[in-house]
Write a structure and sequence with these properties.
With 846 residues, the protein is an alpha+beta fold. A hairpin with a 2-residue loop joins strand 11 and strand 12. It holds the Pfam family YfhO.
């Protein structure tokens, strides 16, 4: 009976999560969809991939839509035999973002049921975790892969704890393997990597407990073996994705550097430190886990507009010279953010109540949880400081494998956002239920921690201006006193409101716990009070960053690249900043559409109007020189940095010709100007001269100055390719593109002499095959980043096809791994049921 009652409570809790998720996302009831910046960019960049899939029913693993061409492994490609991804899709069946919120709640609920085995605390912890502000910020931005990965954090940890702590080997294996597979399928390796840094502390904790004989060494070894097998099988179920991405990453900005210069060292792997550590959390800024506007909110908060208007009035009233105006302009940053990062969409607010209960948890929770959670929390906070704590960052960058593959160390705080709610409910559960803890001890810790927290808040409220400053170093340097004083006063007001709220929320929590100790308040009532106040706190803060304004009509969410302006469109915008961007880009979109419709041949467009490397509008309509993606091919990125981001009147056009930029678009989005480029080299051309150079630096420097229509720059290391392959000039020779698909190109060539054909196609050494008259031939890298192939004299049919072997190999490993998971799970359940039957028979005989 009790078991059935528990199932009812669990089912009711899941219903509560669905209700909360829908209540937070009420616009989905009217058919509206989230408008997410990164998903808009994805729709543009993936348009060629999506069109190919829709038109052919097949998948292309290469697309020319962005950055001259790149694999689609991180652009939404689908893999045949990818069963684990289908499971992920079914779990995320609810409309976005309801799906994410529900799974964040439900996943932590499972974790809560494992660690405390009480639905009330599991439900409370689920709201603590599922309402963490950072998740709502990344949902608003469109970091769907990131939040999709985070939603499997808690259930994966639940599976591991089932093995280590609960000694439920079979169920632990099933849960760990399943959610390890789903974690990898969500495809955000950075988040998974950060989680496993924290899990390392759990492993060490269990090892130490085994050494101290607090748990049997045999159990530790069996548990570690089961978890290792689970992780290996979970990874194996994603073999296609992992193997393809592993092959790809080596050729990207996350792989080995090619050039030697001020910011690069040839052969060194990973990103440069400046790029890695750009978004580093300030040391004091970490306290915005507890007070959301300690350093302001996001860089663009609603209050910022009013503040900016007043700043402009003050400047007009008090500034009398252009020199002073220029000086002030140097100090401007965000009105509503004054932390150490270049900018931010909002704080990683965990909740005042959650942080306070986490502090209590480090005193009340069991030792088998307390120390590893404390160690993992401290490490991740220190790593989040990034450039503000270089000794640790340097150590991890230089010595910890793969750490230098990831940027924005501030995002490692997702680990704290998992562990603080966990230690909070563990501590709260023991506070209420563990009879070994005396009332005197509980009261003493509550008064010390509660009084200390409230006293700390009072100190910040009283002395906040002098302690926190409320201004950046740039503002202190360049702003006159009248302007700095105004900003400090306004920012202090923003901070003070949130600090007072935090004081009230913590005071209510302390009072509820104290009254429960004194038997003046029922435990269940205390839990309800804490839950409701925490829910109100986090809900109201989250609504600053993900609210009704983030939703738009379905037509705009699914087609953000509008080409026609109308009264209806203007009416729909109605001051919505998201839709204003759609309206402001109508003219440039129409221009791009017109180019693509009038000229349907294959070429690229160089578009300066929206920022070459920060838009995919161009990619939506035609192949682009630029694009928007964090993981670009290294060679292409090098060329961008050398010639596109630093424009040279002679060299840059030379590179654009090389990349077949047939059209260039200048001006602004409102009045774009199209300039045809008749000097573009075309899809392919024959060269008669070869320039051999010794180093990559010489390669990239040479391509900006040579006549690349006649000469190809070749690395000396590839000189052997031309053994017995002469190249001779022929003024009548030609090579033309006859068929284009993103993963297959066909050319027809005619020449009287042997030629080197250079293709305006990005060199990628994995998966591309070149066939001359249907016979596969080797190809070589030319002009630092393009493909080239030797073509004998005569008429020839040349075909390039992208058939990466890693996809087929990975498919079979994925299927075998999933089959192994099913087989082992079925055997485990059978064995477990068989033992249960034996126990029942033995009891009946007894």
């Amino acid at each position: 009976m009790a078991k059935n009652k528990n199932f009812i409570y669990i089912a009711a809790s899941l219903v509560v999560f669905i209700v909360l998720a829908f209540l937070y996302s009420t616009p989905v009831f009217t058919g509206k969809q989230l408008f997410q910046h990164d998903i808009v960019q994805y729709r543009g960049g993936a348009k060629e991939l999506l069109d190919y899939r829709a038109n052919t029913g097949n998948e292309t693993y290469w697309s020319d839509s962005m950055f001259g061409g790149m694999p689609t492994y991180q652009m939404g490609s689908q893999f045949k035999g990818d069963i684990i991804k289908k499971i992920d899709s079914n779990l995320n069946l609810l409309p976005r973002p309801v799906n994410y919120l529900f799974l964040l709640f439900a996943g932590f609920f499972l974790l809560g049921m494992v660690v405390v085995r009480n639905w009330k605390y599991a439900l409370l912890g689920a709201t603590f975790f599922g309402l963490s502000t950072y998740f709502y910020i990344i949902i608003a931005a469109g970091h769907n892969g990131k939040v999709n990965t985070i939603e499997y954090f808690a259930p994966l940890l639940a599976g591991i704890l089932l093995v280590y702590i609960r000694k439920q080997y079979i169920w632990g294996f099933i849960v760990t393997t399943l959610f390890m597979g789903l974690q990898i399928a969500a495809n955000h390796p950075q988040m998974t990597y950060y989680l496993f840094l924290a899990l390392g502390f759990l492993f060490l904790s269990e090892l130490i407990r085994a050494i101290q004989k607090k748990t049997p060494m045999k159990h530790f070894l069996i548990s570690s073996g089961i978890i290792a097998a689970s992780c290996i099988i979970g990874v194996g179920m994603n073999s296609q994705r992992i193997m393809a991405n592993s092959e790809y990453v080596k050729e990207t900005v996350r792989g080995k550097q090619i050039l030697d210069n001020d910011s690069h060292t040839s052969g060194k792997s990973g990103m440069d430190k400046e790029s890695m550590l750009m978004w580093s959390y300030g040391q004091l800024e970490t306290l915005n886990l507890f007070i959301p506007r300690l350093m302001g909110g996001g860089s663009q908060e609603p209050e910022g507009k009013e503040m900016m208007n007043r700043v402009q009035e003050l400047v007009q009233e008090n500034v009398g010279s252009q020199a002073e105006m220029d000086r002030i302009s140097k100090g401007f940053s965000g009105m509503t953010y004054w932390g150490d990062q270049p900018g931010t969409s909002g704080p990683a607010y965990q909740g005042a109540i959650v942080c306070f209960l986490a502090l209590l948890g480090f005193f009340f929770a069991g030792k088998k949880y307390r120390y590893w959670i404390l160690g993992a929390s401290i490490l991740t906070i220190l790593l989040a400081w990034g450039s503000n704590f270089m000794p640790l960052s340097d150590f991890f960058i230089d010595y910890v494998p793969f750490y230098n593959k990831f940027r924005a160390p501030s995002s490692i705080l997702v680990v704290v956002e998992l562990l603080f709610p966990l230690i909070a409910i563990l501590g709260l559960y023991r506070f209420f239920t563990d009879e070994k803890l005396t009332e005197e001890y509980k009261q003493k810790i509550l008064m010390y921690v509660g009084g200390g927290t409230l006293g700390f808040l009072l100190i910040l409220l009283i002395f906040g201006k002098s302690l926190l400053g409320f201004s950046t170093e740039g503002e202190k340097t360049y702003f006159p006193p009248f302007l700095l004083d105004y900003l400090v006063d306004e920012r202090y007001k923003l901070f003070r409101i949130d600090a007072i709220k935090a004081f009230i929320y913590v005071a209510i929590t302390v009072a509820a716990l104290f009254l429960t100790l004194k038997k003046k308040l029922n435990q269940n009532i205390a839990l309800i009070v804490i839950g409701v106040v925490s829910l109100f706190d986090l809900w109201t803060v989250n609504k600053r960053y993900l609210n009704d304004e983030n939703y738009v009509d379905k037509i705009f969410a699914e087609n953000p690249f509008q080409t026609e302006s109308s009264d209806l469109l203007a009416e729909k915008v109605q001051g919505n900043p998201n839709l204003e961007s759609i309206l402001s880009n109508v003219n440039i979109n129409k221009t791009l559409e017109t180019i693509s419709e009038k000229d349907k041949t294959h070429y690229r467009i160089y578009n300066q109007t929206l920022g070459v490397t920060s838009e995919t509008n161009t990619s939506y309509f035609k192949a682009s020189i630029g694009g928007y993606h964090a993981v670009k091919l290294r060679r292409y990125d090098d060329v961008l940095n050398e010639y596109i981001n630093n424009v040279d009147s002679v060299k840059t056009p030379n590179i654009l010709n090389l990349l077949n930029a047939k059209y260039m678009v200048f001006g602004g989005p409102e009045q774009p100007q199209v300039v045809p480029n008749p000097k573009a080299n075309g899809n392919a051309w024959f060269v008669s001269d070869l320039k051999f150079v010794d180093t990559p630096n010489q390669e990239i420097k040479s391509i900006g100055t040579i006549d690349n229509k006649k000469t190809a720059v070749i690395a000396s290391s590839d000189k052997s390719y031309f053994d017995n392959k002469p190249v001779q000039a022929d003024s009548t020779a030609f090579i033309n593109l006859t068929k284009y698909q993103p993963n297959e190109l066909e050319f027809k060539s005619q020449s009287k002499t042997p030629q080197l054909a250079v293709f305006s196609e990005v060199y990628y050494p994995h998966g591309w095959k070149v066939l001359v008259d249907e016979k596969e031939v080797p190809y070589v890298k030319a002009d630092y980043l393009l493909r080239a192939v030797h073509v004998p004299a005569g008429s020839h049919h040349i075909r390039m096809v992208f058939e990466p072997e890693v996809i087929e190999k990975g498919k079979w490993v994925s299927l075998l791994s999933f089959g192994l998971f099913i087989l082992l799970s079925a055997f485990g359940i059978f064995w477990m049921n068989k033992n249960k039957k034996k126990e029942i028979v033995a009891e009946q005989k007894a």
